[in-house]
Design a protein that fits this description.
Keywords: Oxidoreductase. This is NAD(P)-dependent dehydrogenase (Short-subunit alcohol dehydrogenase family). The protein has one domain: NAD(P)-binding Rossmann-like Domain (Rossmann fold). The protein is built from 7 helices and 7 strands. It has a 7-stranded parallel beta sheet, with helices on both faces. Helix 3 packs parallel to helix 4. The chain binds nicotinamide-adenine-dinucleotide. The site of nicotinamide-adenine-dinucleotide has 29 residues, from helix 1 and helix 4.
Length: about 240
């Protein structure tokens, strides 16, 4: 029996990086996987790979900032799979540059994906979980939900919002058997990290390397499974020591 045997997991941003690594690990632990992502080519490729390995899996092309698309995807999945037990609310984008040069439109785009989209996905997950009797939600925030950093103000503000949204949802739905926690990664080697900055980011990390998406996936599994049964509203920092400095 896997840790997620026969659970249905809805994973946003599952086409790449941390989301794809988590989809693979969840599948190994017995879950049925739904990948919801903008990127249909990469998302479908992950689903095909999971199916080849015997996992029940589906892809939905979803922009997490579009309310109608998020609502439709949750409705479709609930109909097709019966219920949704786990939401890994993980789709996100980066943004970088001096704040005094940040255009309002760019601010809004970042906050729209990294905070508004997280709200929409969490809300739909909660609606379905209230109908089925409970579940777990893992929101991907960032270590930058806890500390500040130069030149990533919009991202950091959104991730700080995700951390406190997580606390609030954890409190609000605790008595309905819905646990909500946040995962706060440090610098992880995925396409979101600009290649030219990777060496410096590894150097800035006390363990002197970037994290791998598979290392984050193990923490996501912990938060999504009964192993974290007494945790809700919490955020788990997995950053190779960056924020401990
Ligand atoms: N890699 C890091 O260093 C790092 C650190 C802290 C937090 N994070 C967070 O981890 C999460 C996953 O990022 P990753 O590192 O795996 O990057 P990634 O770029 O590999 O994956 C992000 C995925 O999200 C999808 N996506 C983006 N906007 C979307 C939207 N509006 N609707 C649906 N899908 C959308 C992309 O298509 C992509 O597949 C993000 O929330 C990111 O902010 C990453």
């Amino acid at each position: 029996m896997g840790k997620l045997q026969d659970k249905v997991a809805f994973i946003t941003g599952g086409a790449s990086g941390i989301g794809a690594a988590s989809a693979r690990l969840f599948a190994k632990e017995g879950a049925k996987i739904v990948i919801a992502d903008l990127d249909d080519e990469k998302g479908q490729a992950v689903v095909d790979e999971l199916k080849t390995n015997g996992t029940e899996a589906a892809f939905h092309q979803v922009n997490t900032t579009k309310e109608d698309q998020v609502v439709a995807a949750f409705d479709d999945v609930a109909k097709a799979f019966g219920q949704i037990d786990i939401v890994f609310n993980n789709a996100g984008i980066g943004s970088q540059g001096p704040t005094h040069e940040l255009e309002y439109d760019d601010w809004r785009k970042t906050v729209n994906v990294d905070l508004d989209g997280v709200f929409l996905v969490a809300r739909e997950g909660i609606r379905k979980m209230r109908e089925s009797g409970g579940g777990t939600i893992v929101n991907t925030a960032s270590m930058y939900g806890h500390v500040g950093a130069a030149q990533t103000a919009a991202y950091n503000a959104a991730k700080g919002g995700v951390v406190n949204l997580t606390r609030s949802l954890g409190v609000e739905y605790a008595e309905e058997n819905i646990r909500v926690n946040a995962l706060c990664p440090g610098f992880i080697e995925t396409p979101i990290l600009p290649p030219e900055s990777r060496e410096a980011l590894a150097e800035a990390t006390p363990v002197k390397r970037l994290g791998q998406p598979e290392e984050i996936a193990k923490s996501v599994l912990f938060l999504a499974s009964d192993d974290s049964s007494f945790m809700t509203g919490a955020s788990l920092i997995v950053d190779g020591g960056v924020t401990a400095q």
